[in-house]
Design a protein that fits this description.
With 270 residues, the chain is an alpha/beta fold. The protein has a single domain, classed as Rossmann fold. It is 42% helix and 16% strand. Helix 4 packs antiparallel against helix 7 and helix 5 packs antiparallel against helix 6.
Amino acid sequence: MNPDILTRNNVRVSGRGTQPMLFAHGFGCDQNMWRLVAPAFEDEYRIVLFDYVGSGNSDLRAYDAPRYSTLDGYAQDLLDVVHALDLRDVVLVAHSVSSMVSVLAANREPERFARLVLIGPSPRYINDPPYVGGFERQDIEGLLEMMDHNYIGWANFLGPAIMKNTDRPELGDELATSFCSTDPVVARRFAEATFLSDNRADLAQVRVPSLILQCSDDMVAPLEVGDYLHREMPDSTLRVMEATGHCPHMSHPDETIRLIRDYLQPAAVA
């Protein structure tokens, strides 16, 4: 066990099971975003939560700009946590950009992972016909420019837009607050690494069985993206959720829990 990594990434371990279930949060978020889902699995799994360096209550002094200029640096954070706790047979539950971070980690060390659960994944956010990512490049460049000039305004605009579920504005407010609590320089670099990334070539290399949870109406990862992932990833299962928005673990936790449990149960029985 490496206490330096556990402190650096604010690692929290709970649960009464033996098989590890590791939760990886999305851009601009932290491990607290899993509070409505992770406890449901504590009887069956060893729950591991962490924050990427630069997020949540991680040690910001450990932030290294070159390392975190690409998703590879975040994949290394994830693997550092796995190594620090010597985790094996891991069920890795990842949201948004962490889905591709998890793909990178699993491709590096597939022997460590039993299953991937990818919530709202996207290997490429920018349209590249015939591929549909959901955004034109100028849209992404506009968002990045807005981050540079009016970070608070960017956060307050994007949080509710990503969350959807306008009948529950507190969800969008929470996401915007989470964005605002992140160091703007760190967030800007993470955003560029996220929204300009292209991980399509990594999908065919995945050897770990995977569940893709695709929301029915998601501005960040439209339905075409879920279909693409399912086609390109070997041994993948696609479930289109009734949930809308990009954060079903916050807006629709019961459905999220049920679909994860349904997917994992056959493996548990076997």
